[in-house]
Every structure is written in C-alpha cells, then in structure tokens.
Amino acid sequence: MEAPVRLWVKTEPFLVGALPAPPPARLSPHYLRKMAAYARARAAEGCFPRLSWPRWRHIACGKLQLGRGLAWLYFELFHSLLRPDPPRRLEWAEAEAACAGPDELEQERSKAGAPSRAGQRGESLAHPNTSFSPDTLQFLLFLYVQQVNKVSLRRSLIGEEWPSPRTKSPSLTGKSTSENKNWNDQDHHAFVQSHLSDMLELLLEPEQLTASSHSTHSSLVSYGAVSALSFLIEGTVNKSRTVHPLHELALWQPCHGQNGYSKVSRAFSFPKLESWLRSCLTTNPFGMTACLKSGKKLAWAQQVEGTTRRAKIACNTRVVPEVFPMVIMSHVYKQTLAKSSDTLVGAHVRIHRCNESFIYLLSPLRSVTIEKCRNSTFVLGPVQASVHVHSCDNIKVIVVCHRLCLSSTSGCTFYTLTPTQPLILLGNEAISFAPFHTHYPMLEDHMAQVGLATLPNYWDSPMLVCKESGDTSVFRLLPPSDFYTFVIPFEMEGDTTETPGGLPHVYQKALSQREQKVQIWQKTVKETGLTKDQRKRFQMLVENKFYEWLVQTGNRQQLDSLVPPAVGSKQAAG
To answer: Pfam families, from UniProt (predicted)?
Structure first.
C-alpha cells in the first residue's frame, strides 16, 4: 500500500548549513553523543532545551577543542539557517558595529546568545535576542550534518574521493557524485538514510539509551525530538501541494500505526518511527535533480556559435512559499548576461562552467555557488546567506553578502561588503580581496530586503578555516594602485546613486589622485596650442591606443556584448 505521506530531505541544511570542508575530528558522532548527554544534564545552566552562546563556547573550546573563532562560526552559521526577519538582522548588525573592541563584541554575543526564561522552559521566544539561542537538538543535528563533507579514507583508496587542492566539482547532469555534496539532493537523501539511526539516537532522552548511548527495541522518541528532526525533513500528504514539517505529518492519525505514535506517552516507538521514515523518504521535488530533470528552461543566454556545449539555464517549475526557489545555469560563454527578475528573488543560484563572460544577477538572492568558471566577472545582488566559490580561475566577484566561502580558487578577486569574515577553505592560491565598489539603483532596497547593512564590514579580515601550514600568503588585499570603480551599465528604477557605505580612505585617495592626473593631462593637452590638424591626428592616436587597450584587456568583448542582436541594454530589467 502506498504511504499516505511523502517525505524528503530539505536542501537548506546542506546547501547553506554544511560548511564545504571536512569537519574537525571532534565533531564526530561519538563526541556529539557526549555533547548531547552533557547538555541535557546542564539544562539549568543554559544548555537545554536551548543552547546559549557562552555554554556552546565552553563546550566547543573546552570539550571539543575547537578555536573560539570556529565555535562562533558554527553558532552563527546555524543562525543564518533560521530565516531571521531582515529588521532583526539589521538590529544585530547595528549592535555589533557599535562594539568598540573584541571584549565588547564578546559581551554583545553573550547577551544575544542567552535564552530567556521562557526559552529555557521551551516556550515561544519573543525577545529579539533569543533568536541567537538555538534549539539544542536542532543544533546537534546541524553539527552532525557537517559529516556530509567528511573525506572517507576507504573511498579515497579506491579512487572515488581524494582531498587534492583542485577537487572536481559536480556535473550538471544531476548524477550523484562524491564531489559537491552541498548541492546534490541525492547525496543528502543517501546521507540521511545512512545515518538515520545515529541521528535519532542523538535526540533520545538519557533513560531511553543503553550505557553505550544506543537505542533498544523499546526506546521511545519524544515528540520534541521529532520536532527537532523537522530541521532536516519535510513532506506532503500524497497528492497535496502543501508542504508540512515532519512533526506535523508524524502526528497525522493515518500514520500512527506505521510510526508507532502513542497518544498516552506522546512519543513514538524508535524502531517503528525509523522504519516509517525510511519507507516514506523520497527524492526532494524541489532539489537540484528535479530542477535539472523537469525544471523550466529559461532563454536568458545566447547560444554562441563554435561552442561545443549549449548554454543551459533552468529554474524550479514548482514553487511554494515554504521552499526557496532554485536557478541553475551552465556553459554561458563569451557573452554578457544581465537579469533582475522575480525568478531570482530569494533563489539559490548555481553558476557552473561559465567562461569569458560578464554575468549580472541584480536581484536579492538567498545563496550563490560559482563552480568551475574561468575568466569571468560576476556582479550579484545582495545575498542573504552565502556565496561559495569553488574551483574557479581568474574570476571577479562583486557582491554584498552575508558570508563568502572560497575553496580551490586561483587568481580570483573579490570585491565584497560582508558582516562576517570571508572563509578561506582548502586549495586556494593568489586570492585578492577588495572593498565593494559599485552600485545600481535598487541596491539599498535589495539590501534591506535581505537584512544586510553597510556595517560591520569584514571584507579585509578573512579567516583561514583549513589552515594549510598556517600560510596567510594565499591571499592579499588589493593594492590601491590596482583599484578602479566598477560601473553597472544598465538603467533601472531606484534611489541608490553611490556605493553603500563609501570606500575605505586609502582606496578613495587612490581614485582621487588618479582623477587628478586625468584633469592635469586634459589641462596640459588644452594648453599645448595644437593646430586643428594636429588635434585631429592626436585624437586618432589616442583612440587607436584606447582600442588596443580594449582588445588586450578583454573589455572590447564586454562592450560588444552589452548590445546583442535585437536586445537593448535594458535587458537587465527583463
């Protein structure tokens, strides 16, 4: 008989929540079980049912031997999954920007990460600061999910996986690979199926566990534990388009016989619940596989003659309020693509194998992944969660984003405004960081929509998450002498007329000095007293040199592609 519900693994905890790097050894399931027992035993100290920042800092640094920076990274990364409303994010940004130093910042984090008394009792939380105090069981699942990027020694030895500096990124075929597991919903499904018993045991109350922290045939899973599992799993009643969290579906009367729910104990039989979950779990209808297989094809890109692969852009055909949309583009080659579209608003965007192109996505976005791209420039609207750049060469990324993650990149430059430290993971070389240096008319409106402010701004303070011999030479700050502003060449409605937050003094000074030199040059030419014929020949000489420069720098291609056949420069508004 067909199961009355369909369940699937949610995309967000893996795509946005899993750090795209092997987790620290102390975040293994063994230590997470010890953490679960420790937290439950210290409920009165701010460990359970919600976990305060000071208690997590103590557990992470004192018990799991993580650095304080990494401890805060995981704590804040989990928070970014909870979809805090933009005004609250702006309040936190203002509070953090007002801190005079590290000690004051730590005090503010402790205050923001301290649950109220209502939170300690498990009641609803109304105070703005309590949003930074996560549900302990959900946070444990979040830490467990970091194992998705653990390198398997066995698989390494048989050739499926190896931690080389330039690991391959996944294809756009939708086939399961061992490469980028953050995007691949087939990997998410396989991970949950493989580790379901472990994750359920992590959520059990101490009296339901054996001395070795394992379940028995008579173990009961509390309703609170199943509610926590809704962090990872959601679904629908068959033939319905409404998406429900797992705990709501688990309480549906027709499912009780299969999942072992008892109204008397308000709990589920462990073996029956596990069996029910396994039988109902199916492919995510909103994931990458479905998007590639049956998504709507978008005719945003030109098909360039002489290329071996056709440009492909697809988005979800099924869009529901509970799930962020998805846009996937690949093989955009030698062209300018510019869009500000409702299709992009709040979307997870994946840009794959795009070469020698200029791509403008001028809408507020949820997350962006740029993979295996070469010699291209990406100008993005504000990104609410993260921008992950992987296995790219010689690209420029211009973006206001909550977080920037880099892995296996070479010769890339990032012009960013970000309230968190850029994360440098494995395999990077010759990275340049520079301040965000452009604007478009709707930029500040889009920033407000996703809760991003101009301060704090940590564009120049990257964090080496995976220290490769502690080598800080993998990055540099772009010298002011190499810094130029960037003009977005499209007309749009809106009020933003300058770079939000302005430029750091040394970069503004370099621009002013360069502008002054141009003015001196213009004055010198004007005062030379050239005849009309000399001025004409001189102008031709300058124009020829300028044309040579356009060709040599690739800017000629960008200018030509701004006006493709039958499409005006207002394509950005389409």
So the answer is: TBCC
